[in-house]
Design goal:
Elements lengths: L8 H13 L4 H31 L33 H12 L8 H16 L5 H15 L9 H4 L3 H4 L14 H8 L10 H15 L6 H12 L8 E3 L6 E3 L15 H15 L9 H17 L3 H20 L4 H4 L12 H5 L9 H16 L5 H11 L4
Antiparallel strand pairs: 1-2
């Protein structure tokens, strides 16, 4: 673990940029120093605005409950290269590149970059993992970057390959003031349930990355992510499989299941989803993103609320409830699809990340890592230890 109190934060940031882009000349170093000063001022202003907003918005008291607040450090955490991170810090940038270029292929190509960013965050949120586990997660993310899960788009038709999605973008100065434009893009489509909640999932992952590490908040990366989120403006809900006799049905044509209670806070939303996970994780259902995306949709709204986007998260609750309603409407098709497979390997060990475990899903790589990360965010607002243990046990059916 690095000694943060004595670290050379600017030197670490400089080394990070040189790792990404090669040696910087004197002019580029001066521009970087200037961007750093502007970033520090922007973050200070943002912290003051959010503190004021939180005091005014009592209805969102839950937004900070259960969240792990950063320890006070002499050097701001956003300036660190994170040499103490479990998963190599470079994966954060590679994932952001993948997210920013996904719109060149299609909106669902965002799975790839989002999964890589989520893999880095899984390491941030589980700092006690061993270096060997961090290396194993890195190897897992390398498989995504190399294109092993290329099902999300036709590379020939799109004119871009999976590997090209992750190519570093042209270096430029960061401008953290632009980060909020991603939330503005999400505001244009969060009111409706769109493509299993991917608009919210991708936006929340990007906002955490750029808020916490604003050295990457460049116009190119932010503009690409914004275009990705805007691509969901006209997206449908998705579809579900209702068995061989009924087949696949679009979400708009499925009767609403009123048995799902309405919820007004992130805590209440998480409670409903955890209850649903415990009750149905072992069942074989297909469609509407599966339980993986119900979890990740939940995590995304919790993330938005915790980061000062409470009004936006509030607007997203109705669409999230629609997601749960559609998921609950699906029949258990164990007789047709076969029983689910429960994984016994814990994600805290190397073997979890290096052993193939069939789960009947074609997008095994990206869904597994994003859901491990998302589950952790959901559990951050669950107070009962017994419930948390039971949910973690049932999660193994999704792995």
């Amino acid at each position: 673990m690095m000694n943060v109190s004595t670290c050379d934060a600017h030197g670490m940031l400089l080394r990070h940029f040189e790792d990404m882009y090669g040696a910087l000349d004197a002019e580029q170093r001066a521009r970087l120093a200037g961007a750093e000063r502007r970033t520090e001022r922007e973050l200070a202003d943002r912290c003051r605005r959010r503190a004021s907003s939180s005091r005014r918005d009592g209805s969102w008291r839950a937004s900070l409950q259960g969240q792990r607040l950063p320890r006070r450090r002499k050097a701001p955490c956003w300036m660190l290269r994170r040499e103490d991170a479990v998963v190599d810090f470079a994966y954060l940038y590679r994932g952001l590149c993948g997210l920013s270029r996904a719109h060149h292929a299609n909106s669902m190509a965002g799975h790839l970059g989002a999964a890589v960013v989520a893999g880095y965050f899984f390491g941030e949120d589980n700092a006690g993992l061993s270096p060997e586990v961090g290396d194993a997660i890195g190897g897992y993310l390398d498989r995504i970057i190399a294109g092993e899960e290329g099902l999300w788009f036709d590379a020939d038709g799109a004119g871009i390959s999976v590997a090209e999605l992750f190519t570093p973008v042209t270096p430029e100065e960061s401008d953290p003031a632009l980060t909020g434009s991603i939330a503005e893009a999400l505001a244009g489509n969060i009111d409706g349930f769109r493509q299993s909640g991917h608009n919210v999932i991708f936006a929340a992952i990007a906002l955490r990355a750029l808020d916490d590490h604003p050295m990457h908040a460049t116009p190119t990366l932010i503009g690409g992510v914004r275009r990705l989120i805007e691509g969901f403006d006209a997206a449908a809900m998705g579809r579900g499989y209702y068995g061989a006799a009924r087949g696949w049905i679009e979400g708009a044509d499925v009767p609403v299941d009123d048995s799902v209670p309405a919820y007004d806070t992130p805590d209440d939303m998480a409670a409903v989803v955890v209850e649903e996970l415990i009750a149905s994780a072992a069942e074989r259902k297909r469609g509407f993103g599966g339980p993986w995306h119900v979890i990740n949709h939940t995590a995304a709204l919790i993330e938005l609320s915790a980061r000062g986007y409470g009004d936006l998260a509030q607007r997203g609750l109705a669409a999230h409830r629609k997601h749960v309603q559609l998921w609950r409407s699906l029949p258990d098709l164990t007789d047709e699809l076969g029983p689910g497979v429960k994984v016994t390997l814990p994600p805290t060990g190397v073997e979890f990340w290096t052993t193939e475990t069939p789960n009947g899903q074609s997008a095994f790589l990206t869904h597994r890592i994003k859901t491990q990360y998302g589950f952790g965010r959901v559990m951050s607002v669950v107070d009962d230890p017994a419930t948390a243990r039971e949910a973690a046990d049932r999660l193994q059916y999704l792995m």
